[in-house]
Amino acid sequence: MRMGHVSRRAFALAALSTLATAPGAAALPRAGGPGRRPRGSAGMRGVWLATVANRDWPSRPGLPAADQRRELIAYLDTAARDRLNTVMFQVRPTADALWPSPYEPWSAYLTGTQGRDPGWDPLGTAVREAHARGLELHAWCNPYRIALDTDLDRLAPSHPARRHPDWVVAYGGRLYYNPGLPEVRAFVRRAMLDAVAKYPVDAVHFDDYFYPYPVAGQPFDDDAAFDRYGGAFGSRAEWRRDNINRLVRETATGIRRVRPGTRFGISPFGVWRNASTDPRGSDTRAGTQTYDDLYADTRRWVREHWIDHIVPQIYWNIGFAAADYAKLVDWWASVAEGSGTRLYIGEALYKAGAAGQPAAWQDPVELSRHLTLAARHPQVRGHVFFAAKDMADDPIGAMARVVADHYGRSARPPR
């Protein structure tokens, strides 16, 4: 995600970016119409539809409901045209909701005012219209992020963070719920499962934010929670990882209870640990490691099959020195092998043709090469592209090339 839009990818990219510019390339034509028949074998062909800071949708807060709906439908139509089969729709971007929730206020990204009813039901509409187009709809939630600033008073008066300021930690210019508090974990689980109870979503989807990406020189202030709940652990890091593990296991259990058959997937930062840190890690030199910095033991979640699928964000080009796409796909394939957890690869469509990106990303064929390479690994069951606006704009034709090279026929959503 581009940083100017306050993205969930920001800190991750900063950890590894070594950027260079290169000339763009001519766009390629799209590969025909929706092409829903004949249908190929099942495989994930997904796209993230981000709402945080109006990254993809709505194009700005305060649009009339009819215009919001029209923009949303246009993205679903584009996904169907490109023969995708799944949309990850961000419905809880900042401890708020894109459906009428009894737990959290309406998102400000809809009306410009948190808590104001937009006059329609975006999630309900998205589920219905996605299914009408043969698309799955995954409800994408960010568990702990509250706000993109540190002013509690800017939240809606009814916001749970204002009623429970002891749940909140200010860090890196933002507000987060404290993952170390059992009451926080219970609350965010209830808030997210409300969407599962009300709508036939095909899956619940978490992004890469657990404990926040570290900011140099700034400790995350969970001293009181650690003093109260961390006594059984050898270190604060172990306690923090247990907090996140509990969230993952309890969410999975809750989803199965509320709507059996609904799946649970997570899209972590692409590097679990470097091999220099842990011999089980990947041949990378990442500045961020999910196990050590976000306290997310993503490898364990896969190996022990706590989640139905994982979508690591492998957002680097083939041959990138610090984190080679090819090496990371190989590593994740070995982790997923025999686990029962399906592996899909998160793809950095947003980098294709973007100013300041390395020369590889100025080539419209780079992304298509990713799919060709990943197809050598039977454990890779598909791909998810970040993000919807970049799919629609497709400035150098990278998505069109993917469709032409790999999506000649439509494919059933994976089950």
UniProtKB/TrEMBL annotation:
Pfam family for this entry, one: GHL10
Keyword Protein transport: no
Gene3D superfamilies, per the entry: Glycosidases (3.20.20.80)
Leader sequence residues: 1-22
Tagged with keyword Signal: yes
Superkingdom of source: Bacteria
Cited InterPro entries: Divisome_Glycosyl_Hydrolase, GH, GHL10
Alphabetized UniProt keyword annotations: Signal
Record domain Glycosyl hydrolase-like: where: 44-359
Name assigned to this protein: Glycosyl hydrolase-like 10 domain-containing protein
Biological source species: Streptomyces monashensis
Species classification: Bacteria, Bacillati, Actinomycetota, Actinomycetes, Kitasatosporales
